[in-house]
Amino acid sequence: MTHNHNNLYTPSLLIYSFNQECQRMGTAMTREAVLGRILEIISEIAEDEDLSDLDPDIPLRDQLELDSVDFLRVIMELDERYGVQVLEEDFVELTTLNRCIAYLQSKFDAVSEEAGF
């Protein structure tokens, strides 16, 4: 039997691993952890962009060359990697880094609770 190594890191497994680490350390998901996840996805989609000087209160699309397709790719990656679904009416919550963090932190927590971690 062959194993498909591409599916070793499912969203549930990634969330489980993260939550196991948080439990071990006695912490919940931090702003920094959420920010890291957001920036990781953006850096893969907008490979040529410098993310080091982003202002957390200015809309991302004003600071980066992200078009609507890139934005949708970010949304899809959040779902694929972490099981976080963002409804279309909530897209406005992802305009700035600070809004992303506030919105996604509660989403990550909800996904973790649903998965029983």
Helix residue percentage = 55-70%
Low-confidence stretches: 1-16, 22-27
- Percent strand equals under 5%
Radius of gyration: 15 Å
CATH superfamily: ACP-like
Order of helices and strands: HHHHH
Number of discrete helical segments: 5
Shape, please?
A: globular
- Tell me the span between the first and last alpha carbons: 30 Å
CATH topology-level name: Non-ribosomal Peptide Synthetase Peptidyl Carrier Protein, Chain A
> For the record, what CATH class applies?
Mainly Alpha
Number of domains: 1
Name the CATH architecture: Orthogonal Bundle
Question: Averaging pLDDT over every residue, what do you get?
Answer: 79
Please count the beta strands (DSSP E, at least 2 residues each): 0
Query: Biggest sheet: strands, sense, closure?
Result: none
What does this 3D model show about the protein?
The structure is a single chain. The protein has 117 residues and is mostly helical. It has one domain: Orthogonal Bundle (Non-ribosomal Peptide Synthetase Peptidyl Carrier Protein, Chain A), CATH 1.10.1200.10. Helices cover 58% and strands 0% of the residues. The chain contains five helices and no strands. It has helices at residues 11-25, 31-45, 60-63, 68-82, 97-115. The protein is globular, with a radius of gyration of 15 Å. The relative contact order is 0.17. The model is unreliable at 1-16 and 22-27 (pLDDT under 50).
